[in-house]
Design a protein that fits this description.
Layout lengths: L2 E7 L8 H17 L5 E7 L1 E2 L6 H10 L4 E3 L5 E2 L1 E2 L1 H14 L5 E4 L5 E2 H11 L9 E3 L18 E4 L5 E5 L5 H17 L2 H14 L23
């Protein structure tokens, strides 16, 4: 294999939940594998892909058609969006031009407030304002008001006049990342999901440091999610 392109997510940046933490570990493992390897290991970091399974637009559309209430976690919660075409092009572009251990991110513009997204959908669908009911449930455990696209220690370069950023980050030693995976495997096999969740979240916290230490299982909480935001 000459080039391996992995799909990641903006949730991997300073993650507060299991999905983001697992993507972070995958990013770090591939970056470490790419050092000195004949295979190029490349990461593309997505935002929310419009129209993909589990995303909010089809859910909101269905609720608006039925004139049913729409529940949003917080009035200010916002997310970055990209089309499925953008996502496919980003993958192909990265696979064609990337060097090993690099990450590619699409400039998706300013995050969109979910409340404004609902209102825009209602307008396009010609749903009367009086039929649009929005309520707020409160942020879930670990949920952010807005996701981040880059780590503080990442260098990024816009490629020409494109909307694509080439991102580089200092790699962790492969031995250290393998230790993370070993600790995670031990927690899964020996103690179960809660311990594994704790290991993932502690790895995410330790990744902001430069020390190389073992990971001890700790507790964690990641509440159920109705849709991926």
């Amino acid at each position: 294999v000459k080039t391996f392109v992995a799909l990641s997510t903006d949730k991997a940046v300073n993650p507060t939940g299991v999905m983001g933490a697992s993507k972070l570990v995958a990013e770090r493992f591939l970056q470490a594998l790419g050092e000195g390897s004949a295979t190029k290991f490349v990461v593309v970091r997505f935002g929310n892909v419009l129209g993909s399974s589990g995303t909010i637009v089809p859910i909101f559309t269905r609720l608006l058609v039925r004139r049913q209430p729409i529940v949003v976690t917080h009035p200010e919660v916002a997310r970055s969006f990209m089309t499925s075409t953008d996502a496919a092009r980003l993958v192909m572009f990265a696979g064609a031009v990337a060097e090993s251990s690099e990450t590619y991110v699409l400039d998706m513009g300013e995050p969109v407030r979910i409340v404004e997204l609902v209102k825009s959908l209602a307008f396009v669908m010609r749903v009367p304002k009086g039929d649009v009911e929005i309520s707020f449930s409160g942020l879930r455990d670990g949920e952010k008001l807005s996701e981040e696209l880059f780590f503080d220690d990442e260098s990024r370069q816009r490629l020409g006049s494109s909307q694509v950023f080439r991102v580089s980050r200092p790699c962790r030693p492969l031995a250290e990342v393998r230790q993370w995976l070993g600790d995670l495997k031990g927690a899964i096999l020996g103690e179960g999901p809660e311990a594994a969740r704790g290991v993932l979240m502690e790895i995410a916290a330790l990744d902001s440091t430069t020390s190389s230490v073992g990971i001890a299982p700790v507790g964690g909480n990641d509440g159920p999610q109705e849709s991926r935001l």
